[in-house]
Amino acid sequence: MPRKVDSTSKDTVSTAERRRRSVRRGRKPKAASTGKKKTAKVSASTKSKVKAVARKVKAVAKTVKRRIRKKVLPANEALDGLQSKDILIGAPAVQVVSSIDDVLLSPQERIEDAKYYIAEHEQDKGIELEDIRELPQYYGDNKVVLMVRDPWWIFSYWELQPGFVEEKRHIIPPDKRQDASFVMRVYDISYIDFNGTNAHYFFDITIPYGAEKWYINVNAPGRTWIAEMGWVSRDGSFYPIIRSNAVSTPLDGPSWITDEEWAVPEELFSKLYGLSIGFGGLGAGLSSAEMHQLWSQQLFSAAGSGAVSSWGGSEQLASIHGPQQGQKARKFWMVVNTELIVYGATEPDAKVSVQGVPIKLRPDGTFSLRFALPDGMQVIPVKGISADGVDEIVITPVVQKETR
Amino acid sequence: MALGYLCLMLHAHLPYVRHPEYDFYLEEQWLFEAISETYIPLIWMFKRLEREGVHFRLTMSMTPPLISMLMDSHLQDKYLKRLEQLIELSHKEVERTRWQPEFQRLAIMYLNRFCEARDTFFEYGKNIVNAFKEYQDKGYLEIVTCGATHGFFPLMETTLPSVRAQVAVAVDLHKRVFGRQPKGIWLPECGYRPGHDEILRDNGIRFFFVESHGILHGTPRPKYGVYAPVYTKNGVAAFGRDMESSKQVWSAVEGYPGDYWYRDFYRDIGYDLDFDYIRPYIQPTGLRMHTGIKYYRITGKTDHKEPYDPDMAMHRAAEHAGNFMFNREKQVEYLASLMDRKPIIVAPYDAELFGHWWFEGPLWLEFLFKKIHYDQKTIKTVTPSEYLAEYPRNQVVTPSFSSWGWKGYCEVWLDGTNDWIYKHLHKASERMTELVNTYGYAEGNVKRALKQALRELLLAQSSDWAFIMHTGTHVEYAVKRTKQHLDNFNRLYEDIKSGSIDIEFLSRLEEKNNIFPDINPLVHS
Fold this sequence. Notes:
The complex is a heterodimer of chains A (404) and B (525). Helices cover 19% and strands 23% of the residues of chain A. Chain A is an alpha+beta fold. Chain A is elongated. Chain B is globular. In chain B, strand 4, helix 7 and strand 5 form a beta-alpha-beta unit. Chains A and B meet through helix 1, helix 2, helix 3, strand 2 and strand 3 of A and helix 1, helix 3, helix 8, helix 9 and helix 10 of B.
């Protein structure tokens, strides 16, 4: 048996932290009680005095030394994890097509999330909302909806009834039907009254059978968009059957339009811009393009309004995001604490104090106290005085606890 | 004379969670923790600052679901029960930690806090909304409203009647509770889309807040950046968030709440202590949960945590407040040199950051107000209304579509985890409009059903559900809530349309999802 004891080792991982990690990684947490227990040496010498009435003094102490495997999940690994995450965040958002596995939150979202963090809810099987019906898969509509996600991406969902599509298929000349493919055509209709053919430009997305939603990378801020769904025949003719609502993507940089009455020189504006987004004087003298760059940097970098926060310890982030590639964090851990229960009984109307502090008896004259038991010696005089003040009994358990 | 202004804005919100059908409901603890750790400590701060005669101005949004829960007697009683439990536990803790003075003083601190929370709770007749109203009426606090259920407006573009209902229902409740028309609104998640300003104007709203780039990328270019409000074409003022001051609190690198002396959020005795001992204070199922009693400080980037030291933490909070003030002074001095008017620095935060996550947050805020009052002359705290009164003339700018969510737009509420909800939400909204157009002036049970249908729709629209699906905490609950409210809505819709209202079902819903008792369905049009 290794005998080295280092109860203050930096590698110690708390029960709660560990448990949280396992939960975040989707595993069942280990109950704290699964750790091996070994009863430590507890020498309780009881010195009774005259007329020993009182009954039992029981020292409950569970102690095992901490044996820590080196580098369980040291802080520097957690930090490494953080850095590789930064790289991911730093990548342009436009490359993330759909949802990403890792949950990335801005610091204030981390707080908002903490608002909901109270327990290991996932395993909360005891309480259920009453059974609920599933929502309808279809509502019998024929429609396409566009929603703006950000300056570069639009989300679309649609519902098309088979009968409607079948019927509309007849708009394709019979000889072209065979090879026609079903597409979504996305038009840039900025600043125009769209008539179906006058868009600035368009692009097609081939829609696989069964798809009902799509993230569309328009990659053009400050433009207005509309989509149609229909068939494109092999000769390039388009046969639309349905049109969406129009949406506008926001600008991803300052407007080029200025205001005569409230004119602002470029130099001054860039200063204010830099200040506003938290870059202090850095914005001074920048062009619009440079300002945009600064802003995106701010928006997407962990160092700025960042997607991660080290609050509460960056190791949490590493655990939330799972072990990084090539780094296998050791999972084993153990925590041991000890408590001491002092209990006894006397006449229900007696006055009892423990270490000089008066305690309250239960109606039947029994009492029980529970103490966290640190290393060292505890001398615990328990004094009982009869209601009439005539009799006095003192019983003093002495408990020695050490952790090896 | 101050050279510029600081507008501190706290957004207080929790989704409507109320389950009278259970004695204990895990998600209700969100509210209970926030009451003990954020809302009541803020009230303590108001009282102390007032007693000392400190000039301070704070802006707060109190969302309709939060107000409704705080005023609900069922939840008030449940909160009290929880508080009594924690007081009992704290007593045991004081005893248990007798041989560990470094922990016992913390146990005593918690015992005192819980007892004082109970006193404050009773002082306001179990309805702490009264406290906020009191400080509003005394002029310290400007309370603004929010969406009725914190629906995320930018993703309701094809169903604008729902945006109208979100605003109108919120304004109506606000007037009833606070006795006055809200002048401002905190748009849920700060989500703005050009055009929504018209809806705000129609509801008597004079100002709202937007993310920095909402102003900076507005058209035409804003002359003062985010340091002065702009008017939209509909004459509603938009105040832009200052990232510089936000960063100091939020940032991973510079943020104050990560200080090693501050209390660690995760280490809680609900997890740390012996199962048999803690059993009565955790979930009835025996699963552990937070108690709010936390003994450790952040300590460092390590799993090893040192005991919390309240004196050192207080010291750090004071230092951080001083640092924040110093930076604002420098910022204002610089801005004043660039601008021909007094700049306003708008610094909004989630209220629950203060106290719940950042335990020392309310203390920091109190130090900040005191220091601003006693130690300098450059800046002054202000409410948006006061600023607009001083500067009624502002540039007309159309702010850009934006939110304060991660990456600045809608991605948090629109990604692979939650995009499935919009098809259903939009359909329900269209159906609601249809119901209002057809049965808007009906009486009796149809009217009752119509009202409940709107309650269910609004509850389904809470951005919290999409947010939770995105973050991965409590997903199952969020999915169920979304589905359940939509299903309730659809059943009511079918019942109304078919002319056969299931009164028993309707009554059950009215009792259970009882938010907005005075709702007027006609606002959804």
